[in-house]
Structures are given as C-alpha cells and as structure tokens.
Hints:
By secondary structure, this protein is an all-beta fold. Helices cover 0% and strands 53% of the residues.
Amino acid sequence: MQVNPNTIGDTYIGIQWNSNPANQSIVSYNVRINGGNLINVPNTVSNVIGYVANGLSPGTNYTFEVQSVNILGVTSSFSTITATTLPSPPFNLQLSVVSSTQINISWSPNPANQNVVSYIVQITGGNPITGITSTSYSATGLLPSTNYSFSVRAVTSTGAISTPSGASGTTLAALTPPPAGVSNAVYDYFSTQNHQFSMWQYGVKSSATSFTRYLHNGQVVNGVNAWSENPGGICCTMVARNITAATLLYQGVINQPIDMLNLHPGVNGEKAAVRWTAQVSGFVRLQGRFEGIDIAGTSSDGNIIKNGTSIWSNNINGYGAKANFDMVVQVNAGDVIDFAVGYGSNNTYYNDSTGVDINISPKLPPSGIYNAVNDFSTTSNSNGAWWYGEGGYKGYTDNGQIVNGVSAWSLNASGRCCSMVAKNTTGSSLTYQGVINQPPDMLNLHPGVYGEKATVVWRSPVAGYFRVVGRFQGIDMAGTTSDVSISHNGSVIWTNDINGFGATAAFDMVVQVGIGEGVAFEVGYGSNKTYYNDSTGLMVDITPTTARPI
C-alpha cells in the first residue's frame, strides 16, 4: 500500500493510505512509529484510511510503518514512510518600543536539534522578511502612535517553516521640537563647543555656588556625544546627548531617550550640571523633568539652583522614576540657573545616569488669583508658585490616590499619611477613611506622628503687595484638634487653634513680599499633641493688591 503524510505540525504528524480491496476482507491496520508498539486502526468504509500521531517532539524525524490485517488475522508486510515534525514556533517574543518610528523585536533561539537556520518576520500589512539569521529584528520607518502586529516563524535547513508566534506594540507619539521662543537643553542645542559666554554650558558643581566648565568632548560610544572633565568626554562626571534618532541603550544599562540629556555625577558626589544664562531680564518659565535612565536603578538627587541658591530639589530613585518641575522665575540679564545631578542619599556614583529635559520660555508677570485648591498639582512639587512639604523645609516626594477621588502628596509611597496634603478631586464633599469629610474647595492638611507640620507654601514670582484670604477648618468628624499658622519668610504672622469638626479660623490680610519670598500655611497636631483625627481643611486665595498692610 502507498502511505503518505497528510498533515504536519510541530507536535503531530498525520498519515493516510488507500484501503485494500473489499475481497481481501481487511478488518484493521497496524501502525508502528519508530519501531514502537503496534497501534491498531480499524478499517472503515472510506477509501482512504488515516492516523494522526500526537505528542511528538518539534523538528524530529519519525518513521511510520503500516500493515493490513484480514479477518483471519493474517498481516501484510509493512509499508514505510519517514516524516519530520515542524520546528516549534519561536518563543519568548519581546517587543521594545524605541521611538515614534521604531520597534525592536527579539525572541529565544530554537533548540539546536531542530536545525533552524533562519527566521521570517512579518509586520502588519507588509511582506514577509526572510533570511533573518539572528534572533532579533529592528522595524524602522514606522508611523507614530500606530499599533503594529509582528509574527515570527522559524525555518529549518530543509525549508520546513513553523507556525507563527505573535506580538503587538504601539509606536511612541511623534517627538516635536519646542516652539519658537522656547530654549531647550537638547534641541537649542547640545553643542560640541562649550563657550564660557554661551546660553547653555556643561560643567561640574562641587558646591552650590561653584561651576567648572567641562573642557573635553567626545563620543563615549557610537551615537553618544558627551562633555566631561576627562579626555574623550568619558565619565564621570559627564553630560551626554543621544545623537541618534531613537532611544539608545549603551554601556549595558543606560537607556537614554532622544529628548533628554544624561547627567552623571562624579565619584565623590560632584554634581553634573547644565547651566543656562539669562540673556535679558524678565520672567521665565522652567518646565521639564529629571528621570532615572539607568536600568540597574538610578539613585540620584536632582537640583535647580539660581545664582547659587537652591530653588527646587528632589530625589530620583529607580529606573523610570520621574521628578517634574514647572515654575516661574524672575531673572536679570546674566543670572545663571543650574540643573544639576548628584549621587543621592546612598553616596555612590555608579548607576546614577539621570535624564534631564529642560524647556525655558519667556513668561509675563502673573496676574489674577492664586488658589491653593485650583492650582493643586498631582504631578509636580513644586507647581508654579505652590509647594507642598513638611515644616517648610522638607518637600513631599510622593503623590498618589490614597482613596478613590483623593490625590495626596507626602513623604510616603503613593502619598500616604502622615503628614500629607491632599485634594478632593470629585467636585463634591467626600467622606473617606471613615471620619474625614473634605469639601471640594479645601485641601486636607494632616500633621505627622510627632507634630511635623503639614505645609503649603506660596512663593511670590514678583515683588509687591498681595491680599491673602481664606480659612482653616476642622474636617475630621471625630473632632479635629490642631494648631494652624501663617508665616512669611519663617516669621509667624498669624496663628490659631482648630478644636472640633466644623470649627473654622478665617484670615484676611495684606502681605508685602519680595520676589521668591514664601508665605507658608501650616497645620500641627495641637495642644493635645496627638496627630490622629487632625485632618484640617485649608482654603486660600492670593491676589495682587494696591492696598498696604495695616
């Protein structure tokens, strides 16, 4: 009889043969695979008989023997055929979205005994890409913000092709250069010239007031241009730009986007810094972020320093960790603002590559009303003129939804108490954690365990007179017992106590401030010196005025 393969997969082979003539009284057939036990297959009325062997190994040769058995038990000689299972589909597919136009795909190699010699990759709507001998492929020329499906098949030395494995991913949004009038540390531009009097300079800071320009520039690796103290621009310290068209992984652990500079601190904590020098006097808006770009886990401190005085700082702990900034600063021509990265609280410099994105744009002097609730930010501390912290000296670093509808800043992960400053984002009064009843027009300031004051600070972007109007209010239904105060540049100018749910302490005053001076609104744990049940609401409006303090 003639035996032929019918269907072949990576774990099965189907064979078929024509049935013997009826006058031979065949009742069944015996099938043997690789010399194993006989498998009896009953005869059918069909002219074609078949058998499927399952549970086979991918990319493996199998010998099938088939004989007929008549009604008397007499068997024929064996007919033999050899067939090979397909290789297994490529496994462990991994997609890496690199940019708005590129996605990389990789996979694990097939076992050696499957004799795979190449792979085929196919992308949504495209033709198969054959002859790929590595276990990775970079798809370029893609469209921004577009989802792509990838399939990968293995090909053996005999030309057998596996079934596909699939994965999908979406390209990043297109990266748009900053608009006219905006100075950007990457686009405007990272230069191979580090002139002393240029708008942007790159250097090292060993103290708040010091800045030493880097003298050496080079390609630390292909596609990365860097400034440092060392010949060739090699680390550490250094400021580096990825000059390729996509996110770049280099030195094994640094994954640098194209829209960020890489600032790496020095061995002894020297800060890598980008310095911007104001060309004219006026107000400027500083926007951007510090971000951990070392896959091994960045642990650094990010700083913004104006003329030697810190105006913002935060910690970057972990790959992908971000610290956003957005503030308005008044400058005179020749003033300098340094964006600097140190080696963080662990005092080790390695694995501290930190991305920095900086946009600086002209800003008109502010007008209108500053409102502590309306201006509350869930992403940035400080946020414009507002800052949230503990006692006016320790800025909150973590933000999160402590319950649904409540966004909070604190020193604890996800903004958890205590201390904390929280906003009710629902638009109506909200009761949460059993006892807190927070109106939508008030922040919740809760002190710390040891009386640490929850603090909201407003820093004036201009010099002048401002009217400060608002109230503190007990919002804990178990009975708030807190002390509240307002201070200007560290000097208390108003104080009161909140005793009981619904108790209020209103204020209305005119304060004269200089540029950058702060007005702090603080809540402590009161005379009973217990912090629990001390949630205290704060509502405050601050407006420019021509009035003078009484």
